[in-house]
Write a structure and sequence with these properties.
Keywords: Membrane, Transmembrane, Transmembrane helix. The protein is built from 13 helices and four strands. The protein is mostly helical and 318 residues long. 82% of the residues lie in helices and 3% in strands. The longest helix is centred in the middle third of the chain and has 33 residues. Helix 9 packs antiparallel against helix 10. The chain is globular, with a radius of gyration of 18 Å. Strands 1-4 form a two-stranded antiparallel ribbon. A two-stranded antiparallel ribbon has the order 2-3.
């Protein structure tokens, strides 16, 4: 058991590191080819933040553990909102001023409703997987289009430009992309194998292991990035990373079991976890979406998120 725990921790560390290097290389490569920082931020960086979840979900599905894949998708979204944004807002209230984010929030709510509907019968079909991955491509294209239409005074522009690597030689950028593409699936394989072993040892279901230890592990980079972002005054970027990650988690991560291992799922995913994800997404929408101007996710609201996360964890294991 100790060996499996060590393998899990090493796999998690390598997964996070390789995802970071992949995003670094892909962003630098796109910048060298003249792609605007805003487009890089809304597409490559946002998609890259979900890269660990996508690879883990695909690996779990290939290994015949679709419930782990579904749990990873739902659990990551729950953790991103309740724990990551909650802790970040407790450290420093998040000022929501970007009109770009206010356009993305309704998209997040819409795709969350799609996910709840698709999971309502505790069955994920190939058709539903195809619909989700098609929506993923459409949303990605929409975000690329949005990068051309964004207001030049949008604070997200300056925050994004500060995060895009500069003066990285193309050879170095390509090297990091290749390293990321090789190490991501390799580390995900060992991560999933060890996580399933640990779950079986303690009598925990595949769904719960995806909802908890894997989801928490793959969300740690978002927590670190969000805390670092708000400390530098990049509130919109910190929130944008979470919103983009959650959109891609539903459309790309949840699509994997539908495409690779369609079939019946643990009933708790539809009756419990999907509604927790929906409730937290609605709460985020209420806290952020203010037509009258800027809005803060204050410490009180951050505390609500963290308490909701703790209550959910208790519910899972009670």
């Amino acid at each position: 058991m100790l060996i499996q725990i060590v393998i899990f921790l090493i796999g998690l560390a390598v997964l996070s590191w390789s995802a970071d290097k992949f995003v670094y290389g892909a962003s630098a490569l796109a910048k060298n080819f003249g792609v605007s920082p805003m487009m890089i931020g809304l597409t490559i960086v946002a998609m890259g933040s979900s890269a660990p979840e996508i690879v883990v979900s695909a690996t779990a599905s290939i290994n015949g553990n679709p419930n782990t894949a579904v749990g990873n998708a739902l659990g990551s979204n729950i953790t991103n909102i309740a724990l990551v944004l909650g802790i970040t807002a407790l450290i420093k209230p998040l000022l929501v001023s970007s009109t770009t984010l206010k356009r993305e929030l309704p998209v997040l709510l819409l795709v969350t409703l799609f996910a709840v509907y698709f999971l309502s019968d505790s069955y994920l079909s190939p058709v539903e997987g195809i619909i989700l991955i098609t929506m993923f491509v459409i949303v990605l294209g929409g975000m690329a289009w949005l990068s051309f239409k964004v207001d030049k005074n949008d604070p997200l522009i300056a925050e994004t430009e500060d995060e895009i690597p500069n003066n990285v030689p193309t050879v170095n950028a390509v090297t990091w992309v290749i390293v990321g593409l090789v190490m991501l699936p390799l580390s995900a394989h060992f991560l999933v194998e060890s996580a399933v072993f640990i779950a079986r040892h303690f009598g925990v279901s595949d769904l719960v292991i995806g909802l908890t230890i894997i989801a928490l592990g793959t969300s740690l980079p978002e927590l670190a990035a969000s805390i670092a972002g708000v400390r530098k005054g990049e509130d919109d970027l910190a929130l944008g990373n979470i919103i983009g990650s959650n959109i891609f988690n539903i459309l790309a991560v949840l699509a994997m079991p539908g495409l690779i291992a369609p079939g019946l799922l643990d009933a708790d995913a539809s009756s419990r976890d999907s509604y927790v994800m929906l409730g937290l997404t609605i709460l985020l929408f209420v806290f952020c979406f203010n037509l009258r101007g800027t809005r803060q996710i204050n410490r009180y609201e951050g505390g609500i998120f963290v308490l909701a996360f703790l209550a959910y964890q208790y519910w899972l294991f009670a």
